[in-house]
Amino acid sequence: MAIQLSDKPLLEWAGDTLAIALFEDAVELTGELASLDERFAGILKELIAEEEFTGKANSTVFTRVSSNIPVRKIILVGLGKTEAFKIETLRRAAAAVGKVGKKQKSKVIGLSFPLWNNDPTASAQAIAEGVQLALYQDNRFKSDPDDKGSQVETVELLGFAGQEAAINRANQIVSGVILARQLVAAPANSVTPITMAETAQQIAQDYGLQIEILEQEDCEKLGMGAFLGVALASDLPPKFIHLTYKPESTPKRKLAIVGKGLTFDSGGLNIKGAGSGIETMKIDMGGAAATLGAAKAIAQIKPNVEVHFISAVTENMISGKAMHPGDILTASNGKTIEVNNTDAEGRLTLADALVYTDKLGLDAIVDLATLTGANVIALGDDIAGLYTPDDALAGQLEQAASESGEKIWRMPLEEKYFEGLKSGIADMKNTGPRPGGSITAALFLKQFVKDTPWAHLDIAGPVWADKENGYNGPGATGYGVRLLVDWVLSE
Ligand code: BES
Ligand code: MN
Ligand code: ZN
């Protein structure tokens, strides 16, 4: 599907489907829309009245236009109230139009959307992102899909002539989101530690990034006992991925993105039981997927920021070689961990990834992890938990969240709760009591970052959408890529 830009007046547009966005407090047809309604023999007014269209955010109505008019169908989409108008409103409205256009078998859609904040660049980018993310469909694993995908070939943004750079930027970001979706959606017999490393190699090769893959022996030499403890029972070799984007001139900032990369989480010997969602645990590399998706986007955008993309990738399996519940592991910073639950494996892999990243001497580290069910209980499926002792970094991420529409909510890093991780025999346990389980998980991670401003995002909820939700789902959302790109590009 291609996005095109046009300065054709709305009244002159001819083609398959015309989509018009309207605010909730302004569905009456004035000015250009009144003339258009006249040209369409009053069909807009009729459509609004018959369908009781009020312009509620993301609501859509559509109709067939009579044959003597050079437009086949009309879609109206609501933008909600003007005072609640955000950049995300445009993204979601564009997504809603995309979905209706797909159902209506539109081939060409003309979009008449208002500018957000008088900013044609930000507006065009958001619209292009929304429609492409909404129309993406994954048929890789169907031999003969019932739903062959959308037939939309062209989306024409009316009044956005000259915004090629914005569309280009949207395409770069969308390519990263789609990579992340594909990695998360693919099952564990398709995406493995080996293929994750290959994907990273491919990104490095395609876009000229530096790459280092640490093999098991390399990780042993670095003393990564926590990561390797998790990897023990897998028949597949663990892979520690370190991709680096370096700009040509001196970077303004040096950042790291670290992703949890469990290509499958069985729970280990504390195996996940019935009703635990074990069959969905291919998603447990969602942090690593967002990391690689962000790498793909940032490598194309080429900002003046150095970015390290890091993931310790393995599976959490069972076998005679598996770590036993109660085993004591030593992480690469020398700290000892009593593994009182083998299902709290993500924090073990992240411990060594964070120690490694902390030594790079960067300005900030953000990790993303499908870390705890407790975070999903606290914040639901749409919102990631943000845990950081650093208010400035929290502010940067909150800003990126509001611009990208990928929601986060800051949670407390209540130091007192670390008592729940005290061990009688080692430096700490890997699992605390059930209450506050996402907070103790974050406090555990904090033990492995000494020198670098750090934030942790628990993305166990938003990596996956069971139902259709705006431009996401059903299925893998690619959550995190747009948030991370926005953060890296911010001042
Ligand atoms: N990968 C899971 C967390 C998870 C849960 C991700 C639901 C996505 C959806 C993680 O490794 C895990 O098993 N966490 C345990 C921790 C517990 C043993 C302290 C959990 O949340 O139950
Ligand atoms: Mn687990
Ligand atoms: Zn896990």
UniProtKB/TrEMBL annotation:
Protein residues bound to Mn(2+) 2: K260, D265, D284, E345
Domain Cytosol aminopeptidase span(s) in chain numbering: 341-348
Location relative to the cell: Cytoplasm
Gene3D superfamilies xrefs: Leucine Aminopeptidase, subunit E, domain 1 (3.40.220.10), Zn peptidases (3.40.630.10)
Residues annotated as binding Mn(2+) 1: D265, D343, E345
Signal peptide stretch: none
Cofactor (UniProt): Mn(2+)
Cofactor binding mode and count: Binds 2 manganese ions per subunit.
Reactions listed under catalytic activity: Release of an N-terminal amino acid, preferentially leucine, but not glutamic or aspartic acids; Release of an N-terminal amino acid, Xaa-|-Yaa-, in which Xaa is preferably Leu, but may be other amino acids including Pro although not Arg or Lys, and Yaa may be Pro. Amino acid amides and methyl esters are also readily hydrolyzed, but rates on arylamides are exceedingly low
Key words of the record: Aminopeptidase, Cytoplasm, Hydrolase, Manganese, Metal-binding, Protease
Active site: K272, R347
InterPro entries (alphabetical): Leucine_aapep/pepB, Macro_dom-like, Peptidase_M17_C, Peptidase_M17_leu_NH2_pept, Peptidase_M17_N
The organism's place on the tree of life at top rank: Bacteria
Known EC number: 3.4.11.1, 3.4.11.10
GO MF annotations, alphabetized: aminopeptidase activity
Physiological role: Presumably involved in the processing and regular turnover of intracellular proteins. Catalyzes the removal of unsubstituted N-terminal amino acids from various peptides.
Family: Belongs to the peptidase M17 family.
Protein name (Swiss-Prot/TrEMBL): Probable cytosol aminopeptidase
Classification of source organism: Bacteria, Bacillati, Cyanobacteriota, Cyanophyceae, Nostocales
